[in-house]
Design a protein that fits this description.
Elements (H helix, E strand, L loop, with lengths): L1 H6 L5 E2 H18 L6 H16 L11 H6 L2 H32 L9 H10 L10 H32 L1 H18 L4 H5 L2 H13 L9 E2 L4 E3 L2 E3 L4 E2 L3 H5 L43 H18 E4 L26 E6 L7
Antiparallel strand pairs: 1-7, 2-5, 3-4, 6-7
Helix pairs in contact: 2-7, 3-5, 7-8, 7-10, 7-12, 8-10, 8-12
The structure holds protoporphyrin IX containing FE (HEM).
The site of protoporphyrin IX containing FE has 24 residues, from helix 7 and helix 12.
Length: about 350
Amino acid sequence: MIKKIALNEGSEFNLTQAVNSMIYTFTSKAAFGKKYLEQEEFISVIKQCIKLAGGFYIGDLFPSAKWIQNISGMRPKLEKFSERIDKILENIINDHKEIRSRRAKDGMAEVEEDLIDCLLKFEDCDSDTYFHLTRDNIKAIILDVFSAGSDTAATTIIWAMAEMIKDPRVLKKAQAEVREGFDRRGRVDEAAIDEFKYLKAIMKESLRLHPTVPLLVPRESGQVCEINGYHIPVKSRVLVNAWAIGRDPKYWTDPDKFYPERFIDSSIDYKGTNFEYIPFGAGRRICPGMNYGMANVEQVLALLLYHFDWRLPNGMKNEELELREEFGASMSRKGDLYLIPTTSNQLLVI
Ligand code: HEM
Protein backbone atom coordinates (compact mmCIF):
# COMPACT_ATOMS: atom_id res chain seq x y z
CA MET A 1 0.00 0.00 0.00
CA ILE A 2 2.87 2.37 0.86
CA LYS A 3 4.33 1.64 -2.57
CA LYS A 4 0.94 2.36 -4.15
CA ILE A 5 0.88 5.74 -2.41
CA ALA A 6 4.44 6.45 -3.61
CA LEU A 7 3.25 5.83 -7.18
CA ASN A 8 0.66 8.55 -6.68
CA GLU A 9 3.26 11.02 -5.55
CA GLY A 10 2.24 14.56 -6.40
CA SER A 11 -1.30 13.64 -7.42
CA GLU A 12 -4.58 13.38 -5.56
CA PHE A 13 -4.99 10.14 -3.65
CA ASN A 14 -7.99 8.57 -1.90
CA LEU A 15 -6.47 7.83 1.50
CA THR A 16 -9.72 6.52 2.99
CA GLN A 17 -9.98 3.76 0.40
CA ALA A 18 -6.30 2.86 0.65
CA VAL A 19 -6.31 2.63 4.46
CA ASN A 20 -9.49 0.58 4.39
CA SER A 21 -8.07 -2.00 2.02
CA MET A 22 -4.79 -2.08 3.93
CA ILE A 23 -6.49 -2.84 7.25
CA TYR A 24 -8.64 -5.60 5.68
CA THR A 25 -5.45 -7.06 4.16
CA PHE A 26 -3.73 -7.06 7.60
CA THR A 27 -6.76 -8.75 9.17
CA SER A 28 -6.98 -11.36 6.39
CA LYS A 29 -3.29 -12.15 6.77
CA ALA A 30 -3.60 -12.54 10.56
CA ALA A 31 -6.75 -14.66 10.31
CA PHE A 32 -6.21 -16.73 7.16
CA GLY A 33 -2.42 -16.75 6.78
CA LYS A 34 -2.48 -16.76 3.00
CA LYS A 35 -4.60 -15.16 0.30
CA TYR A 36 -7.73 -17.06 -0.70
CA LEU A 37 -9.64 -16.67 -3.94
CA GLU A 38 -12.89 -16.05 -2.07
CA GLN A 39 -11.28 -13.53 0.29
CA GLU A 40 -12.29 -10.44 -1.70
CA GLU A 41 -15.91 -11.61 -1.85
CA PHE A 42 -15.86 -12.38 1.89
CA ILE A 43 -14.66 -8.85 2.68
CA SER A 44 -17.19 -7.30 0.33
CA VAL A 45 -20.09 -9.21 1.96
CA ILE A 46 -18.90 -8.18 5.43
CA LYS A 47 -18.74 -4.54 4.35
CA GLN A 48 -22.31 -4.76 3.05
CA CYS A 49 -23.46 -6.29 6.36
CA ILE A 50 -21.76 -3.52 8.35
CA LYS A 51 -23.50 -0.96 6.15
CA LEU A 52 -26.88 -2.62 6.66
CA ALA A 53 -26.35 -2.90 10.42
CA GLY A 54 -25.54 0.80 10.69
CA GLY A 55 -28.43 2.11 8.58
CA PHE A 56 -31.89 3.12 9.69
CA TYR A 57 -34.28 0.17 9.77
CA ILE A 58 -37.98 0.60 10.48
CA GLY A 59 -38.24 -2.96 11.93
CA ASP A 60 -36.06 -1.89 14.90
CA LEU A 61 -38.90 0.39 16.03
CA PHE A 62 -41.41 -2.49 16.00
CA PRO A 63 -39.39 -5.56 17.02
CA SER A 64 -42.48 -7.73 17.61
CA ALA A 65 -43.88 -7.13 14.09
CA LYS A 66 -42.04 -9.93 12.26
CA TRP A 67 -43.82 -9.14 8.98
CA ILE A 68 -41.94 -5.82 8.71
CA GLN A 69 -38.65 -7.75 8.54
CA ASN A 70 -39.92 -9.73 5.57
CA ILE A 71 -41.58 -7.00 3.54
CA SER A 72 -38.66 -4.59 4.07
CA GLY A 73 -36.39 -7.17 2.40
CA MET A 74 -33.91 -6.88 5.27
CA ARG A 75 -34.28 -10.43 6.56
CA PRO A 76 -33.86 -12.24 3.20
CA LYS A 77 -30.85 -10.03 2.42
CA LEU A 78 -29.17 -10.82 5.73
CA GLU A 79 -29.94 -14.53 5.35
CA LYS A 80 -28.32 -14.56 1.91
CA PHE A 81 -25.21 -12.82 3.27
CA SER A 82 -25.06 -15.15 6.25
CA GLU A 83 -25.22 -18.27 4.02
CA ARG A 84 -22.46 -16.94 1.78
CA ILE A 85 -20.19 -15.99 4.70
CA ASP A 86 -20.76 -19.41 6.24
CA LYS A 87 -19.84 -21.20 3.01
CA ILE A 88 -16.66 -19.20 2.42
CA LEU A 89 -15.49 -19.67 6.01
CA GLU A 90 -16.26 -23.40 5.84
CA ASN A 91 -14.01 -23.71 2.75
CA ILE A 92 -11.17 -21.73 4.31
CA ILE A 93 -11.36 -23.67 7.59
CA ASN A 94 -11.43 -27.02 5.77
CA ASP A 95 -8.39 -25.98 3.77
CA HIS A 96 -6.57 -25.15 7.03
CA LYS A 97 -7.54 -28.55 8.45
CA GLU A 98 -6.10 -30.33 5.46
CA ILE A 99 -2.85 -28.37 5.60
CA ARG A 100 -2.60 -28.98 9.37
CA SER A 101 -2.98 -32.71 9.01
CA ARG A 102 -0.35 -32.77 6.23
CA ARG A 103 2.01 -30.73 8.41
CA ALA A 104 1.34 -32.95 11.42
CA LYS A 105 2.44 -35.97 9.38
CA ASP A 106 5.70 -34.14 8.60
CA GLY A 107 6.10 -33.16 12.28
CA MET A 108 5.64 -29.45 11.48
CA ALA A 109 2.18 -28.80 12.92
CA GLU A 110 3.03 -25.51 14.62
CA VAL A 111 5.00 -23.77 11.89
CA GLU A 112 3.64 -20.31 11.03
CA GLU A 113 0.24 -20.60 12.66
CA ASP A 114 -2.49 -18.11 11.84
CA LEU A 115 -5.65 -17.39 13.85
CA ILE A 116 -7.64 -20.24 12.29
CA ASP A 117 -4.83 -22.72 13.07
CA CYS A 118 -4.87 -21.61 16.72
CA LEU A 119 -8.64 -21.89 16.99
CA LEU A 120 -8.71 -25.30 15.30
CA LYS A 121 -6.65 -26.73 18.17
CA PHE A 122 -9.67 -26.14 20.39
CA GLU A 123 -12.05 -27.74 17.92
CA ASP A 124 -9.85 -30.80 17.78
CA CYS A 125 -9.76 -31.33 21.53
CA ASP A 126 -12.28 -33.47 23.36
CA SER A 127 -15.74 -31.86 23.66
CA ASP A 128 -15.82 -32.44 27.45
CA THR A 129 -12.44 -30.75 28.04
CA TYR A 130 -12.42 -27.40 29.84
CA PHE A 131 -12.22 -25.34 26.65
CA HIS A 132 -13.74 -26.63 23.45
CA LEU A 133 -14.79 -24.69 20.35
CA THR A 134 -17.38 -25.84 17.84
CA ARG A 135 -17.10 -25.06 14.13
CA ASP A 136 -19.76 -22.34 14.55
CA ASN A 137 -17.79 -20.79 17.44
CA ILE A 138 -14.72 -20.54 15.21
CA LYS A 139 -16.68 -18.95 12.39
CA ALA A 140 -18.23 -16.45 14.81
CA ILE A 141 -14.81 -15.44 16.17
CA ILE A 142 -13.39 -14.90 12.66
CA LEU A 143 -16.45 -12.88 11.75
CA ASP A 144 -16.07 -10.76 14.91
CA VAL A 145 -12.44 -10.01 14.10
CA PHE A 146 -13.36 -8.80 10.61
CA SER A 147 -16.58 -6.99 11.42
CA ALA A 148 -15.54 -5.37 14.71
CA GLY A 149 -11.85 -4.89 14.05
CA SER A 150 -11.35 -3.58 10.53
CA ASP A 151 -13.68 -0.64 10.01
CA THR A 152 -12.96 0.70 13.50
CA ALA A 153 -9.17 0.75 13.02
CA ALA A 154 -9.38 2.24 9.50
CA THR A 155 -11.80 4.92 10.68
CA THR A 156 -9.50 5.85 13.59
CA ILE A 157 -6.55 6.28 11.22
CA ILE A 158 -8.51 8.55 8.90
CA TRP A 159 -9.77 10.75 11.75
CA ALA A 160 -6.23 11.13 13.08
CA MET A 161 -4.88 12.02 9.61
CA ALA A 162 -7.70 14.49 9.00
CA GLU A 163 -7.15 16.21 12.37
CA MET A 164 -3.41 16.45 11.70
CA ILE A 165 -3.94 17.88 8.22
CA LYS A 166 -6.27 20.47 9.72
CA ASP A 167 -3.62 21.44 12.26
CA PRO A 168 -0.17 21.51 10.56
CA ARG A 169 1.50 22.24 13.91
CA VAL A 170 0.51 18.77 15.14
CA LEU A 171 1.37 17.13 11.83
CA LYS A 172 4.86 18.64 11.84
CA LYS A 173 5.53 17.68 15.43
CA ALA A 174 4.36 14.08 14.83
CA GLN A 175 6.45 13.77 11.67
CA ALA A 176 9.53 15.08 13.48
CA GLU A 177 9.09 12.46 16.22
CA VAL A 178 8.55 9.57 13.81
CA ARG A 179 11.35 10.54 11.43
CA GLU A 180 13.85 11.11 14.24
CA GLY A 181 12.94 7.76 15.82
CA PHE A 182 13.21 5.64 12.67
CA ASP A 183 16.31 7.43 11.37
CA ARG A 184 18.13 7.04 14.70
CA ARG A 185 17.51 3.29 14.62
CA GLY A 186 18.30 3.09 10.92
CA ARG A 187 15.15 1.15 10.21
CA VAL A 188 11.39 1.17 10.41
CA ASP A 189 10.54 -1.15 13.28
CA GLU A 190 7.98 -1.83 15.98
CA ALA A 191 10.35 -1.09 18.87
CA ALA A 192 10.75 2.47 17.60
CA ILE A 193 6.98 2.88 17.24
CA ASP A 194 6.61 1.94 20.89
CA GLU A 195 8.59 5.04 21.87
CA PHE A 196 6.46 7.54 19.92
CA LYS A 197 4.77 9.34 22.82
CA TYR A 198 3.33 12.16 20.73
CA LEU A 199 1.88 9.76 18.16
CA LYS A 200 0.18 7.84 20.96
CA ALA A 201 -1.23 11.10 22.32
CA ILE A 202 -2.58 11.90 18.84
CA MET A 203 -4.34 8.53 18.67
CA LYS A 204 -5.88 9.07 22.10
CA GLU A 205 -7.01 12.58 21.23
CA SER A 206 -8.54 11.38 17.95
CA LEU A 207 -10.46 8.68 19.78
CA ARG A 208 -11.65 11.19 22.37
CA LEU A 209 -13.18 13.45 19.72
CA HIS A 210 -14.15 10.70 17.28
CA PRO A 211 -14.86 7.43 19.11
CA THR A 212 -15.66 5.03 16.27
CA VAL A 213 -18.41 3.28 18.28
CA PRO A 214 -19.98 6.40 19.84
CA LEU A 215 -22.83 4.65 21.67
CA LEU A 216 -20.87 1.51 22.64
CA VAL A 217 -22.65 -1.86 22.75
CA PRO A 218 -26.20 -1.55 24.20
CA ARG A 219 -26.61 -2.75 27.81
CA GLU A 220 -29.63 -4.12 29.65
CA SER A 221 -30.13 -3.05 33.23
CA GLY A 222 -30.11 -6.06 35.56
CA GLN A 223 -31.98 -4.27 38.34
CA VAL A 224 -33.94 -1.11 39.01
CA CYS A 225 -31.71 1.87 39.63
CA GLU A 226 -31.60 5.64 39.61
CA ILE A 227 -29.00 7.68 37.73
CA ASN A 228 -28.90 11.48 38.01
CA GLY A 229 -32.52 11.48 39.17
CA TYR A 230 -33.72 9.28 36.29
CA HIS A 231 -35.56 6.11 37.20
CA ILE A 232 -34.21 3.17 35.14
CA PRO A 233 -36.59 0.15 35.25
CA VAL A 234 -35.19 -3.36 35.23
CA LYS A 235 -34.46 -4.81 31.74
CA SER A 236 -34.20 -1.36 30.12
CA ARG A 237 -31.97 -1.02 27.11
CA VAL A 238 -29.31 1.49 28.11
CA LEU A 239 -27.05 3.34 25.68
CA VAL A 240 -23.84 4.95 26.91
CA ASN A 241 -22.81 7.99 24.87
CA ALA A 242 -19.00 7.75 24.79
CA TRP A 243 -18.90 10.58 22.25
CA ALA A 244 -20.62 13.04 24.61
CA ILE A 245 -18.57 11.87 27.60
CA GLY A 246 -15.34 12.55 25.67
CA ARG A 247 -16.46 16.13 25.05
CA ASP A 248 -17.91 16.88 28.46
CA PRO A 249 -16.57 20.27 29.65
CA LYS A 250 -16.82 18.97 33.23
CA TYR A 251 -13.82 16.74 32.51
CA TRP A 252 -12.06 18.31 29.51
CA THR A 253 -10.73 21.82 29.09
CA ASP A 254 -11.53 23.28 25.69
CA PRO A 255 -13.28 19.98 24.87
CA ASP A 256 -13.85 20.50 21.14
CA LYS A 257 -10.22 21.39 20.46
CA PHE A 258 -7.89 18.77 18.99
CA TYR A 259 -4.99 19.08 21.41
CA PRO A 260 -2.94 15.85 21.80
CA GLU A 261 -0.70 17.48 24.43
CA ARG A 262 -3.50 16.99 26.98
CA PHE A 263 -2.56 13.29 27.07
CA ILE A 264 1.20 13.82 27.51
CA ASP A 265 2.16 13.05 31.12
CA SER A 266 -1.46 12.21 31.85
CA SER A 267 -2.44 8.91 33.41
CA ILE A 268 -5.79 8.84 31.57
CA ASP A 269 -5.97 5.75 29.43
CA TYR A 270 -8.56 3.90 27.35
CA LYS A 271 -8.36 0.65 29.33
CA GLY A 272 -11.80 1.15 30.87
CA THR A 273 -10.94 2.53 34.31
CA ASN A 274 -11.13 6.26 33.51
CA PHE A 275 -14.84 6.71 32.92
CA GLU A 276 -14.43 10.18 31.38
CA TYR A 277 -12.63 8.52 28.48
CA ILE A 278 -14.09 5.24 27.17
CA PRO A 279 -13.48 4.95 23.38
CA PHE A 280 -13.13 1.16 23.82
CA GLY A 281 -15.97 0.89 26.33
CA ALA A 282 -15.60 -0.50 29.84
CA GLY A 283 -16.64 -3.43 31.99
CA ARG A 284 -17.18 -6.96 30.81
CA ARG A 285 -18.11 -5.89 27.27
CA ILE A 286 -14.98 -3.78 26.81
CA CYS A 287 -13.38 -4.16 23.38
CA PRO A 288 -11.30 -7.36 23.42
CA GLY A 289 -9.34 -6.26 20.32
CA MET A 290 -8.11 -2.97 21.80
CA ASN A 291 -4.38 -3.79 21.74
CA TYR A 292 -4.41 -5.35 18.29
CA GLY A 293 -6.53 -2.47 16.95
CA MET A 294 -4.23 0.20 18.39
CA ALA A 295 -1.12 -1.61 17.10
CA ASN A 296 -2.58 -1.48 13.58
CA VAL A 297 -3.50 2.19 13.89
CA GLU A 298 -0.09 3.12 15.26
CA GLN A 299 1.84 1.21 12.62
CA VAL A 300 -0.06 2.67 9.68
CA LEU A 301 0.05 6.24 11.01
CA ALA A 302 3.80 5.99 11.67
CA LEU A 303 4.48 4.82 8.11
CA LEU A 304 2.24 7.45 6.52
CA LEU A 305 3.96 10.19 8.51
CA TYR A 306 7.44 8.86 7.96
CA HIS A 307 7.39 8.33 4.22
CA PHE A 308 5.28 11.22 2.99
CA ASP A 309 4.49 14.87 3.31
CA TRP A 310 0.79 15.55 2.84
CA ARG A 311 -1.27 18.44 1.53
CA LEU A 312 -4.84 19.04 0.48
CA PRO A 313 -5.84 19.04 -3.22
CA ASN A 314 -7.18 21.96 -5.28
CA GLY A 315 -5.32 24.56 -3.26
CA MET A 316 -7.64 23.94 -0.31
CA LYS A 317 -6.43 25.54 2.94
CA ASN A 318 -5.89 23.28 5.96
CA GLU A 319 -8.49 25.06 8.04
CA GLU A 320 -11.10 24.51 5.30
CA LEU A 321 -11.02 20.73 5.70
CA GLU A 322 -14.39 19.58 7.03
CA LEU A 323 -14.59 17.07 9.86
CA ARG A 324 -18.23 16.11 9.66
CA GLU A 325 -19.41 12.72 10.83
CA GLU A 326 -21.27 10.04 8.85
CA PHE A 327 -24.15 8.12 10.41
CA GLY A 328 -23.40 4.38 10.47
CA ALA A 329 -22.30 1.36 12.52
CA SER A 330 -18.96 3.03 13.14
CA MET A 331 -18.69 6.81 13.16
CA SER A 332 -16.54 7.62 10.16
CA ARG A 333 -15.64 10.94 8.58
CA LYS A 334 -18.26 12.09 6.04
CA GLY A 335 -16.77 11.70 2.57
CA ASP A 336 -13.46 10.14 1.62
CA LEU A 337 -10.25 11.93 2.55
CA TYR A 338 -8.34 12.97 -0.57
CA LEU A 339 -4.76 14.13 -0.08
CA ILE A 340 -1.65 14.71 -2.17
CA PRO A 341 1.39 12.75 -0.96
CA THR A 342 4.95 13.79 -1.71
CA THR A 343 7.89 11.69 -0.62
CA SER A 344 10.17 13.31 1.91
CA ASN A 345 13.96 13.50 1.38
CA GLN A 346 15.08 10.99 3.97
CA LEU A 347 13.83 7.48 3.34
CA LEU A 348 14.57 4.10 4.70
CA VAL A 349 13.29 1.16 2.66
CA ILE A 350 9.55 1.32 1.98
C1 HEM B 1 -9.21 1.22 16.98
C2 HEM B 1 -9.90 0.11 16.87
C3 HEM B 1 -11.09 -0.27 17.70
C4 HEM B 1 -12.00 0.51 18.38
C5 HEM B 1 -12.01 2.03 18.51
C6 HEM B 1 -12.94 -0.38 19.00
C7 HEM B 1 -13.98 0.03 19.83
C8 HEM B 1 -14.88 -0.85 20.42
C9 HEM B 1 -15.93 -0.43 21.30
C10 HEM B 1 -16.23 0.99 21.75
C11 HEM B 1 -16.63 -1.53 21.66
C12 HEM B 1 -17.84 -1.60 22.62
C13 HEM B 1 -17.33 -1.81 24.04
C14 HEM B 1 -18.38 -1.59 25.10
O1 HEM B 1 -19.57 -1.47 24.77
O2 HEM B 1 -18.04 -1.52 26.30
C15 HEM B 1 -16.02 -2.67 21.01
C16 HEM B 1 -16.46 -3.97 21.11
C17 HEM B 1 -15.86 -5.02 20.47
N1 HEM B 1 -14.70 -5.00 19.74
FE1 HEM B 1 -13.59 -3.36 19.29
N2 HEM B 1 -12.62 -1.67 18.68
C18 HEM B 1 -11.49 -1.65 17.89
C19 HEM B 1 -10.82 -2.74 17.38
C20 HEM B 1 -11.21 -4.05 17.53
C21 HEM B 1 -10.49 -5.19 17.00
C22 HEM B 1 -9.18 -5.11 16.23
C23 HEM B 1 -11.23 -6.30 17.31
C24 HEM B 1 -10.97 -7.76 17.03
C25 HEM B 1 -9.82 -8.25 16.64
C26 HEM B 1 -12.40 -5.86 18.03
C27 HEM B 1 -13.38 -6.69 18.51
C28 HEM B 1 -14.45 -6.27 19.28
C29 HEM B 1 -15.51 -7.16 19.74
C30 HEM B 1 -15.64 -8.66 19.46
C31 HEM B 1 -16.39 -6.37 20.50
C32 HEM B 1 -17.68 -6.83 21.20
C33 HEM B 1 -17.36 -7.18 22.64
C34 HEM B 1 -18.61 -7.59 23.42
O3 HEM B 1 -19.70 -7.15 23.09
O4 HEM B 1 -18.47 -8.36 24.38
N3 HEM B 1 -12.35 -4.50 18.16
N4 HEM B 1 -14.95 -2.22 20.26
